[in-house]
Amino acid sequence: MTGVAIAPVAWQWGDVDAVCRGDDVDLSHRRVNARLSVRSGRLVRGAGYAEASEEARRHLARVGAIVRLRQRGRYLVHAAGAVDPNGRAWLLSGDSGSGKSTLAYALARAGWTSLGDDGVIIERDGGGFRAHAWREPLRVSLGLAGEFPELNGERARARLDDPRRRMSLPVPIAPGGVPVVALVFLARAATFSIRRVGPIAALAALIRQSPWVIIEDAWAAEHLDALRHAAALPAFQLDHTSAELHSIAGVLSEVMR
């Protein structure tokens, strides 16, 4: 009996091209000749990786880590994460520019610990979810120095090649495996509002912020099912202004009373 060949699945993320062949994934950077593969759950460096720029290697490694975690039942959500004094994780999700990093820093100033500002890893834990930090430094724009005066003393950290003049700042990182209490979907607005959203709207937002779910491989169904269950958590739409930068901890704590 002749076996049926499985057609490779091709997809892209940013400057990284990917081809899935069964459980293996081959990654290549579109701008430089550098390759990285996921083989048997491990990252394997390919041609040109060692010679590539730090930025190109970081992009490849990030996508490789996302794939590798997905194969283990852990899923990256484009979100900031913060842990309140009661040990509960909050996911602050939204498009770039929605205020994830800003509010994550504001919560850190209020004594919360961080799970990252641009990605949080979630995994199912029985009927709930646990969150793990995506270990990258929290980046805050120098433009917020008017609200957070201490940033004036960190000007040397600001990246000159970044239009938003963001700087990496050390903040306390929460330990892994923190129970997730709520999802908060962010948008900047002229007036403040926070409202509950239902599971269908929450699922649509989560899929937008975890787009790897649409890769047609062996883990797609489990990924979608995980997001569907995550969408059943308490979820809120937060339209925020600069006024909430100094009260965000109280705002979030109040909605879960």
Architecture overview:
The chain is of the alpha+beta class and 257 residues long. The protein is globular. It has helices at 54-70, 100-109, 199-209, 220-230, 248-255, and strands at residues 9-13, 16-21, 24-29, 35-39, 42-45, 75-77, 79-83, 89-93, 113-116, 120-125, 128-133, 138-141, 166-169, 178-188, 193-196, 235-240. Helix 3 packs across helix 4. Strands 6, 7, 8, 9, 10, 11, 14, 15 and 16 form a nine-stranded mixed sheet that branches. Strands 1-2-3-4-5 form a five-stranded antiparallel sheet, covered by helices on one side. A two-stranded antiparallel ribbon has the order 12-13. The chain starts with 8 loop residues before the first strand and ends with a helix. Helices cover 22% and strands 33% of the residues. Mean pLDDT is 90; it is low at 1-5.
Tags for this model:
22% helix, 5-stranded antiparallel β-sheet, 33% strand, alpha+beta, disordered N terminus
Write the topology of this structure.
Blueprint: E1 9-13, E2 16-21, E3 24-29, E4 35-39, E5 42-45, H1 54-70, E6 75-77, E7 79-83, E8 89-93, H2 100-109, E9 113-116, E10 120-125, E11 128-133, E12 138-141, E13 166-169, E14 178-188, E15 193-196, H3 199-209, H4 220-230, E16 235-240, H5 248-255
Parallel strand pairs: 8-14, 14-16
Antiparallel strand pairs: 1-2, 2-3, 3-4, 4-5, 6-10, 7-8, 7-9, 10-11, 11-14, 12-13, 15-16
Helix pairs in contact: 3-4
Which radius of gyration do the C-alpha atoms yield? 19 Å
User: Between the first and last Cα atoms, what is the distance in angstroms?
Assistant: 63 Å
Number of helices: 5
Report the mean per-residue pLDDT as an integer: 90
Uncertain parts: 1-5
What percentage of residues falls in helices of 4 or more residues? 10-25%
- Could you tell me the number of beta strands? 16
* Gross geometry: globular
Element pattern in H and E: EEEEEHEEEHEEEEEEEHHEH
Summing up helix and strand content along with how strands pair, one would put the structural category as alpha+beta
Main beta sheet? 9 strands, mixed
Strand percentage lies at: 25-35%
